[in-house]
Structures are given as C-alpha cells and as structure tokens.
Amino acid sequence: MENVNRNRLFIGSCLALLVTSLTFAIRAKIEGVFDVEYGLTKEEIGWAFGPAFWGFTIAMFAGGLVVDIVKTKTVVWTAFLMHAIGIIVLLMAKDMTMLFVANVFIGFGNGSVEAACNPLIASIYPEQKTKMLNRFHVWFPGGIVIGGLLAYLLMDTMGLSWQILAGLLFIPLIIYGYLFLGQKIPESERVTSGVSYKDMLKNVGAPYTIIALVFFMILAASMSSITIDFTSTTTYIGLVVVVAIMIAEAKGVNKVSLLFPFILLCMFLTSTSELGTTQWINALLTDNGVNPILILVLVTGIMAVGRFFAGPLVHRWNPAGVLLGSAVMATAGIYWLSLADGAAMTLAAAIVFAIGVCYFWPTMLGFVAEYVPKSGALGLSILGGAGMVATSLILPIMGSSIENSGPSKTLENMAILPAILIVLFLLLNVYMKNRKADQE
Fold first, then answer.
1. What mean pLDDT comes out for the span 31-58?
2. Cα separations in angstroms, 190 against 60, 118, 378
C-alpha cells in the first residue's frame, strides 16, 4: 500500500487497544475500593461498570455504520478524545454517578478503537486477517497483565491510591495519539473491493432486527427499571420470536446465509463467559488463598501468549475447530473454578479457563472477516459491540448472584454458557465441512 506505514498503524492500534485493556484491569481492581471505601453494593457497581460495555457497543455500531463515510482517522481521534475525558472523570469519581459517567466516556472510547482498528488491520493485512487480528488482540489480555501487575505493585505492595494507577492511562493514550498523527490510513476492505453499502447490510444477514435487538439490550443494561427475567417463560417466548423474525429477514428478504446471525448468537455467550468472569474475578476468588489480581494476571498472560502464536493453530484446526476446542476448555475451567478450594486448585482451574477463553474474541472476529467478508466494518463492529452489551447485561446479574448465592454457585451457573457453545460450535463445524464439500 503506497505511502501507508503498516507497522506504525499496527503499533498505534495496539497501544489504543492497550488503553482499552488497562481500563478493564483497573475496573477489576477498583471494584473493591468502591465497595469498601465508597459504600456501593456489588449490584450498584455492576450498573456503574455497565456503560463501559454498552457505551462500547454504541460506539462500535455507530463507528461501523459511518467509518467508511467519515473515514477511519475521524473514528480514531474520537476514541482519543473519549478516552481522555473518561480518564479525567474517573479520577474524580467517588460515587456511583461519577463512576457511571466515567465509564460512559471510556466505553465510547474503547468501542471507537475497535470500530476503527479491526477493519483497519483487516485492510492492511488482507492475506493474514485471522493471524494479525489475533496479534492485535494480544494487547487486550496483555494490557490486563500489565494493569494487574501495576495494581498489585502500586496498591497492594506500595499502598498507593487507585488514582495513581488510573492516571497511568495517560501514557499509552499520548503515545497512540502521536503514532496516528499525520498518518495516511487506507480505506476499508469493503470499499477497496467495491462492495456497496447496501450489500454490506445484506451480508450482516438480518441487520435491522439485529440492531434493534442490541439496542434493546443496551436499554436493559443502562436502565435498572428494565429487567430481563431469565426464569420467566415470557423471556424465552420473546427470544423465539426474535429468532423467527431474524430468520425471516435473512432468508425471506435478503436471501443471505444465516451464518452471521448464528455467529452473533455465539458471541453473546463467548464474551460473557470471558469478560463476565474476569471483571468479577476479585469478588469471585477473594477467599481462594491467592490474590485475585495475580490470578487475573496469570489468566490474561496465558491469553496474550496464546493469541500471539495463534497462526499455526488456526491454520491446522481452522477457526471453527479452534472455537469448539475453546468452548470445551472454557466449560471445564469455569466449572472447576466453582469447585476450587485452595491456591493450587484455583491456579490449575484458572489455567484451564484461560486456555478456553484465549481464542474466543479474536477468532470470532477473524471468522467473520474470512467467511463473511462482505459484511465489512459493520459486521465486525456489530459482532464486537454485541459481545460487550451482553457483558454489560450479565455484570449486575452476576453481582446480585455473588451477594445472594455466593461465588461458587455463581461460577457454577456461568459454566452453562460455554457448555451451550459446545453444541453450537459442533453445529458450526458440521456446517463448515458441508460448505467446503459443496465448494469443491
């Protein structure tokens, strides 16, 4: 690509994602601070943390819809501005409202990073999409490792305030701003390949139903007065109706495969299995004989290494096979964590969990980039955004469960999510084998 500095853009994207991941590590640590020092309940903290996820979703959806119109550079600088404001507000937060507002801006910044950088990396590395998206997403667990170690060093060992930890976010923020400054950023793959905006919408499968569903989820996540009762028959009837509408839109109107809506459903479960567990890790594992932040460092360290070397694994097993293996390991890991008693068993279970969730997020994105490429930036944004809003829904539910049923029962219930994925990814593998046979 003429006049495009791929290395500089890739490093800048990685540092932007580093800011995102550091905010996740910091939230996992300060959950205890706002509980003990500021008197918030775990359910209130779950609501205050929610905007980091549904704000992420809104930014990803908006970015995916307009990134080809306003250009990637604009979305990158929107991320920079939202991050800067969010960090400043976070440093001043001492109650639920300020924590909520800070997470709104941080969520918008994080979502804008993903909306801009996922399609950017797919564009500058067209022959290595899954490999380079995995390497890009190394910096999500990698940043949590860095943030977790800093939290342990600064707060647990040196006794410094959480504001000093949060203030360190300005370092990667300034550097990624510098790296993007004045750089030529190429058009997305959808634009360069000549796929129209209309065709991009069609290849999402059921764009209008999906967007409406996700925005309803955002309302449910952002307004405590709207609740989704998963013990009610009405909820499941509603889900069946939504699926039926989605199938009708995809097959009856657009004549497009249901592959993308199917992957979207799986994304709801992969993201909550990973992020719901890690965001509550301090409360879930506080009595297991080892510092929960160190467990988070271990888990995310394994994820970072695994993602960096994902290329050969994906090549050998293919994305669908990797996802199936991941679901099996994630189920075993979360269930084992629910039974773990003592440091040794907890660490062993955490390793299995880390191997399980390691490839979920980037391989889901890579799968869509490879097998539904005409969905473009919108497809990647919808997928990532939907994963985040699903997490924002699960956080207060998990918070309430931890307080009322205890950490072990909460983890036991969470193991159901990746268990469902085992069935779904088995079906996906059968479908992909039949599709390959038909194309030969």
1. 80
2. 17, 13, 10
C-alpha span between 320 and 370 (Å, rounded)? 11
Count of Cβ atoms closer than 10 Å to residue 436 Cβ: 10
Q: How far apart are the first and last CA of the chain?
A: 32
Amino acid occupying residue 163: Q
CA 422 to chain centre: 19
CA 363, CA 235: separation in Å to the nearest integer? 30
Alpha-carbon span 440 to 433, nearest angstrom: 11
Cα–Cα distance for residue pair 343/289, rounded to 1 Å: 5
Instruction: With H, G, I as helix, E, B as strand and everything else as coil, classify residue 159.
Output: coil
* pLDDT single digits (tens) 173-213: 999 999 999 888 886 655 555 566 677 777 777 777 887 88
Residue type, 26: I
Report the C-alpha dihedral over residues 402, 405, 409, 413, rounded to 10 degrees.
-80
Those residues whose C-beta lies under 8 Å from the C-beta of residue 228, and which sit 6 or more positions away, are 220, 235, 393
Q: How far apart are CA 281 and CA 304, in angstroms?
A: 18
Instruction: Note the pLDDT tens digit of each residue in 221-263.
Output: 666 655 666 566 776 687 778 778 777 776 655 555 788 889 9
In whole angstroms, give the CA distance from residue 109 to residue 60.
9
How remote is the C-alpha of 369 from its chain's centroid?
16
Domains contained in the chain, CATH given: 6-439 (1.20.1250.20)
Taking Cα atoms as reference points, which of 328, 303, 354, 338 lies closest to residue 414? 338
- Secondary structure letter of residue 187 according to DSSP: P
Q: Which residue has the tokens 């069609």?
A: 202
Rounded Cα gap, residues 368 and 396, in angstroms: 30
Retrieve residue 50's tokens: 């929610």
Q: By C-alpha distance, which of 108, 21, 6 is closest to 307?
A: 21
Between CA 154 and CA 150 the distance in angstroms is: 6
φ/ψ of residue 186, rounded to 5: -70, 165
Q: What is the 3-state secondary structure (H, E, C) of 190-247?
A: HHHCCCCHHHHHHHCCCHHHHHHHHHHHHHHHHCCCCCCCCCCHHHHHHHHHHHHHHH
Q: What is the pTM of this model?
A: 0.75
- Cα distance between residue 359 and residue 137, in whole Å: 9
Burial of 359 (0-12, 13-18, 19+ CB in 10 A): buried
